[in-house]
Write a structure and sequence with these properties.
Length: about 200
């Protein structure tokens, strides 16, 4: 069995834009060699997101979901899913994905679309709380920074849309970000979540 860790998989995903299963397969096929795995993904046509990221996204759709069940909070969500061409934006799969992400946002209640959207003061406060908790647990100072880096990932998974596990596991097993990446690979275009608006009446 190839010798690689979950962190290796995550690093490869971040570097190439590949999904989790594709990154795992690439590392397994190349004996855990990071550079060879990245080359493998490029050869397979998977790691193209970086090249596509510079291409203008001038088209897209607004996906929508409304939850209006008696006795429960009323929740409405709109998701702006951007693409390069009108041809892709008008495809049934693209429109359905936008609507599915809106449904996910209604259920999972993310606060931000991307990690970069998290205000610096909120992120700094969260890191301070994690560090304080680690000290209270008796963790040595030399490893607290690593603990903070590890646990902040949980904060992103709870609060950032693209880092959340997609709620429709029957349709896709992975994060919302990976769902968008998969669609981008399939369509051959630069696709991203451009905006999110969520309104809730009732409940907490």
């Amino acid at each position: 069995m190839a010798d690689f860790t979950a962190q290796d998989v995550q690093s490869l995903r971040q570097a190439t834009g590949a999904g989790m299963m594709d990154a795992k397969k690439a590392l397994a096929e190349t004996g855990g060699d990071f550079d060879k795995a990245a080359d493998y993904l490029r050869e397979q046509g998977i790691a193209k997101m970086e090249k596509r990221s510079d291409r203008t996204q001038g088209e897209g759709v607004v996906g929508a979901y409304l939850h209006n069940q008696a006795g429960r909070p009323v929740i409405g969500v709109m998701i702006g899913l951007a693409s390069e061409t009108d041809f892709v934006a008008k495809s049934d799969e693209f429109i359905q994905t936008a609507n599915d992400i809106a449904m996910h946002a209604a259920a999972a209640n993310p606060s931000w679309v991307n990690r970069e959207d998290v205000p610096a003061d909120i992120l700094d406060k969260e890191k301070e709380l994690i560090a304080a908790q680690a000290r209270n647990e008796g963790k040595p100072d030399q490893i607290i920074e690593k603990i903070v880096d590890g646990r902040i990932g949980s904060f992103y998974k709870e609060n950032v849309l693209v880092d959340q596990v997609f709620v429709r596991t029957d349709r896709f097993d992975g994060t919302v970000g990976e769902l968008v990446q998969q669609l981008a690979i399939k369509m051959g275009e630069n696709i991203s979540i451009a905006s999110m608006a969520r309104v809730q009446i009732g409940g907490e």
